[in-house]
Write a structure and sequence with these properties.
This protein has 131 residues and is α+β, with helices and mostly antiparallel strands. The chain folds into two domains: 33 residues, no CATH class; 96 residues, K homology (KH) domain (GMP Synthetase, Chain A, domain 3, 2-Layer Sandwich), CATH 3.30.300. The protein has three helices and six strands. The longest helix has 23 residues.
Length: 131
């Protein structure tokens, strides 16, 4: 299964990422998303898709999930990620189902391909909260 995007930049380093699903601006000056923001957003999206698939198979329901992801880069070149902290807030889960949701998220953390990739270079921390 191949994924494809097209990214183009003008002379001032303003870019546009395009795919069949849409487009977004890329910027190094807060006029669009910066490369690491795109990367961390891709990670959260992959984690959620994996989590949602696991929940669906286990017939676990919830109202919403919010992923607050912070990536800290190391100082040495190349400036790879050193640590990624993800706080996940899930709503609409009854107290008796929270343990099942936690187990589903633990599985998602293992099976999400972007999570597995990041895990090879950075320490990953997860905190799941219920509201």
């Amino acid at each position: 299964m191949a994924n494809q995007v097209k990214v183009s930049f003008d002379n001032s380093n303003q870019g546009l990422l395009q795919s069949n699903g849409g487009s977004t601006k890329i910027s190094f000056t807060n006029e669009g998303l910066a490369p690491y923001e795109l990367f961390l957003g891709g990670f959260a999206s992959c984690l959620h898709a994996t989590f949602k698939g696991i929940c669906s198979k286990k017939k676990i329901t919830f109202d919403s999930a919010t992923y607050d992801v912070v990536g800290e880069k190391r100082e040495e070149v190349p400036t790879l990620l050193k640590e990624v902290t993800t706080v996940i807030t899930i709503t609409g889960v009854t107290p008796e189902k929270q343990n099942s949701v936690l187990k589903a998220m633990e599985q998602a953390e293992r099976y999400c391909s972007i999570s597995a990739t990041i895990n090879t270079i950075a320490e990953m921390k997860f905190d799941v909260q219920f509201k």
